Amino acid sequence: MNLFMQTAIALATENVRSGAGGPFGAVVVKDGAIIATAANAVTATNDPTAHAEILAVRKACQALNHYQLDGCEIYTSCEPCPMCLGAIYWARPTVVYYANTRAEAAEAGFDDSFIYEQVPLAPHQRELRMIHLPHDEALDSFLKWRASQSRISY
Amino acid sequence: MNLFMQTAIALATENVRSGAGGPFGAVVVKDGAIIATAANAVTATNDPTAHAEILAVRKACQALNHYQLDGCEIYTSCEPCPMCLGAIYWARPTVVYYANTRAEAAEAGFDDSFIYEQVPLAPHQRELRMIHLPHDEALDSFLKWRASQSRISY
Fold first, then answer.
1. Among A12, A104, A140, whose Cβ lies nearest the Cβ of B13?
2. What is the pLDDT of residues A1-38, one digit of tens each?
3. Are A86 and B86 in contact (CB < 8 Å)?
4. Residue A117 class from Cβ within 10 Å (0-12 exposed, 13-18 middle, 19+ buried)?
5. What does the mean pLDDT of chain A come to?
6. Lower CB density within 10 Å: C or N end of chain B?
7. Where are the beta strands (DSSP E) in chain B?
8. Model's pTM, two decimal places?
9. Residue B30: which of B56, B54, B1 has the closest Cα?
């Protein structure tokens, strides 16, 4: 097995054994070396965003001192959920390798598949109640952004 | 205008004025009171996950000492991107109010719409390169999770 994937899976397995959290691990690799590793820490840290991939992306960005993962590879023990997939798009690594699938995660009791079904729906069609309150002042913040000389696009 | 939405929009506008980051703000409300606020901090903190909603969800969970936002409302100056929407599904608040839309965000130069188009695609069809490497050891971590007496489901 690929060494990096082996590391991601070992993090997932150890996380269950230790009782620290869900069976998920992730590794970020650059130039053939691991620059960040993480396991799921949702319940351990009371942070619903503390999935392995989110934590690994954040750590890797701190290591690189940049908000993007240029030239990086992500190895994760499970297909990223929509939250983590979105984070990975924003971080812009080169490739993502994953082992378990969202269907297998659903069988293990996780909401990944459900959230994948919800994301493409129009906001008013989702099970999550979402209400659009348009405001000129909100649009104005976008106009100010476009006009800003000091903005750093990301 | 709703006071909570006004606060979220003010955070977005101030973030541009100060040069701290993108034009996005979010507020979490419980029992009629604000329990967390945040503005986008991606470039300020070198963290691609530091969107206003992610930061507000994390702060609110710390305030509640729980990994879910039971009975909470989220007010955000812009429709959540797929990453933030996923985070909100995991956090399970009651309702989300948003002002600007993903289309307006796209016009302002952000990838929200693009990521919304990518998420529903099969992994191999996405512009992001994703490679499935199934492994028995990864599936075994799910079996161990299901069998664990100490697991805390989330």
1. A140
2. 799 999 999 999 999 999 999 999 999 999 999 999 99
3. yes
4. middle
5. 97
6. N
7. 25-30, 33-39, 72-78, 95-100, 129-132
8. 0.97
9. B56
